[in-house]
Amino acid sequence: MLLRLAIKDVVIINHLELDFSAGLSTLTGETGAGKSILLDSLQLALGGRADASLIRSGQKQASVTAIFHPRGLGEQLDALGLVPDDDDELRLRRVLNADGKSRAYINDTPVSVRVLRNLGSELVEIQGQFEQHGLLSPSRHRAVLDSFAQLQPLVSTVAKAYEDWQQSAERLADEQAKLEKDRQEQDYLEHVAKELADASPEAGEHDSLADQRQRLQHAEKLAEYLQEALNILQADVGVERLINQALRVLGRAPDLLQSQITPSLNALEQAADLIGEALGQIETLANEQNGDPYELERVAERLFLLKDLARKHDCDPNELPEVLSQLEAQLGAIEQADETLRRLTQEVASLRQRYDDLADKLSEKRRKAASKLDRAITSELAPLKLERAKVETRIQSLEPAHWGPQGKESLQFLVAMNQGEALGPIGKVASGGELSRFLLALKVVLAGVNPVPTLVFDEVDSGLGGATADAVGERLDRLAEHLQLLTITHSPQVAARARTHYHVAKSSKKGKTETQVRHLSDDERIEEIARMLSGSTITAEARAAAQALLDRANS
User: Fold this and answer.
1) Cβ atoms within 10 A of the Cβ of 181, count?
2) What order of strands is seen across the sheet that includes strand 124-126?
3) Quick one: which of 59, 309, 370, 459 could link to 393 by a disulfide (CB 3.0–4.6 Å)?
4) Which runs of consecutive H residues, i.e. helices, occur in 417-554?
5) pLDDT 10s digits, 168-199
6) Distance (Å, whole) CA 127 – CA 454
7) CA-to-CA distance for 302 and 219, rounded, in angstroms?
8) How many CB atoms lie within 10 A of CB 48?
9) Domain boundaries in the chain?
10) Cα separation of 425 and 437, whole Å?
């Protein structure tokens, strides 16, 4: 709800602060007094178009601050990183410079004009704005009907069902495209998988073969060394023969000397044993080096095969077993693709059926609600001097290709303002005054479900008088039971209905014209309504009539 509007240096307003209350508030005054400037100022604070011509003559900038009670805006403010002030107020401020540029603030935090406009649209609807973006736009008519019938929960459910269906259909399409591509490559995949399977690479095999090749490459040289060592040890006069000869010679020594030579004999015997053991080891190792002469060739060929396969699959040779597993899994998925597609096809069909059922339910409720809405609007039109008007909410089923999250039909409000005329879009067949009254009727019908807490009407009663003006006032009064309503009016019947009455006037001070706004007392209201009834000369009869209007409005 709008609590206060502060305006500084806008056109002929020097400095002005207005406090607003709930219910119906009216602004009255002579033509040209500045009532429309108040609306322009409010629109500026709500993120409307900035125009340097709004700046008061002789000033460098203008500013407007609109203060609201932020009821129901917690999520939007949290998303913007904003919180209401301690006094539970939300301040929207706009500063306009002489170069036409402007700055926007929410609770003194700089924001973009777009953010200000988006938040402002949640707080206030101004006549003209909701004609353009609501009543005259067929794209909004469906939302109007849904609000009237309180179908938003079902609309959200339908939208979720549509999203689930579309996402599932996209997954099915992706799988079909992937399968088609895989099947085109299936022959190649089978070839390379068989090639790898035939090679049977093992984890760590490459590194093991590399070590084996290195050993085999040095085996020939080692064999030469071993043979040379054997030749030396096994020569005609070899170490082992010499030791044995020495043992025989010492063995012929007299018994008397045996005790002295025993250590030498023992050492020579040990040497003979060690030499024999060494010869055996060398001979065994030499024989090993003379094994399969083609082993090195086989190892080299195996290494070449593994490296060639690794290059083909752009991987490390040790990763070939994993690559084979992936290829086998891919081929297995192709083999299972029919089952996957069958499952996804069933899922898509099931989700489409769910959307169908929910959307059909929504369509049925919309058609029933449309008839009720047409009757409700029609009942409000007759007292507004639109008794010949005919209203029809036309619902047209869409082809499946045009179904969407909002349902399976398009919707448009059509009217004929006079008997015998063809139905047509309201913006093309209704005059400005008729459009305003039609809008008022619609807002009255939607009063209980209107999401915006403040509505502003600008001379919705223009050109009307008598019973019709009174009917307008009565409907504005009813509408104000559900939300805050501000209206500029020249109708005494409407002004008399107001809970709060402001008078707008202009005066000249020091050669400059200024607009002033006063909150009228009860006595001042009688005088103002009497002026509206009789003109500049206020008679006793006009005062009595004004009092009668006020009494009737308050009864």
Assistant:
1) 10
2) 124-126, 454-458, 484-488, 24-28, 500-509, 512-519
3) 370
4) 426-429, 432-445, 466-479, 492-495, 522-534, 540-554
5) 999 999 988 888 887 777 778 888 888 888 88
6) 11
7) 19
8) 20
9) 167-340
10) 15
Q: For the chain, what percent of residues have pLDDT higher than 90?
A: 34
Give the pLDDT confidence score for residue 42 in this predicted structure: 93
Strands 24-28 and 484-488: parallel
Full DSSP string of 490-512: --HHHHTT-SEEEEEEEEEETTE
What is the 3 state secondary structure string of 196-214? HHHHCCCCCHHHHHHHHHH
Q: Which of 54, 39, 145 lies closest to 457, judged by CA?
A: 39
Name residue 76's amino acid: Q
Q: 């022959």: which residue's tokens?
A: 187
DSSP 127-168: TTHHIIIIIT-HHHHHHHHHHHHT-HHHHHHHHHHHHHHHHH
- Mean pLDDT for 527-552 is 89
Tokens at residue 455, please?
A: 């509505």
**Residue 458 in contact with residue 39, Cβ under 8 Å?**
yes
This model's pTM is above 0.70: no
90-97 and 102-106 strand pairing: antiparallel
Query: 291 vs 284, 300, 303, 392, 404, CA distance in Å?
Result: 11, 17, 20, 103, 79
Alpha-carbon distance of 291 to 487, in angstroms, equals 111
| Count of residues making up the chain | 555
Token pair in block for residue 272 = 């003979």
The answer to whether the CB of 383 falls within 8 A of the CB of 471 is yes
388-395, Cβ contacts within 8 angstroms, sequence gap of 24 or more: 388/417, 388/418, 388/419, 389/415, 389/416, 389/417, 389/418, 389/434, 389/438, 390/415, 390/416, 390/419, 390/423, 391/415, 392/423, 393/141, 393/145, 394/423, 395/363, 395/366, 395/367, 395/370
Q: Dihedral, CA atoms, 207, 210, 215, 219, nearest 10 degrees? A: 160
- The CA-atom distances, in angstroms, between 342 and each of 170, 186, 222, 349 are 15, 20, 67, 11
**Residue closest to 456 by CA, chosen among 440, 433, 471:** 440
Residue carrying the six token digits 């597609």: 341
CA distances, 32 to each of 23, 35, 407, 514 (Å):
26, 7, 48, 11
C-alpha distance from residue 216 to each of 206, 224, 298, 307 (Å): 15, 14, 11, 19
What's the rounded Cα separation, in Å, for the pair 397 and 489?
42
The owner of tokens 């459009």 is 435
Is residue 440 helix, strand or coil? helix
Mean pLDDT computed over every residue of the chain: 85
Cα distance between residue 457 and residue 204, in whole Å = 83
Could you give the CA distance from residue 148 to residue 371 in angstroms, rounded to a whole number? 11
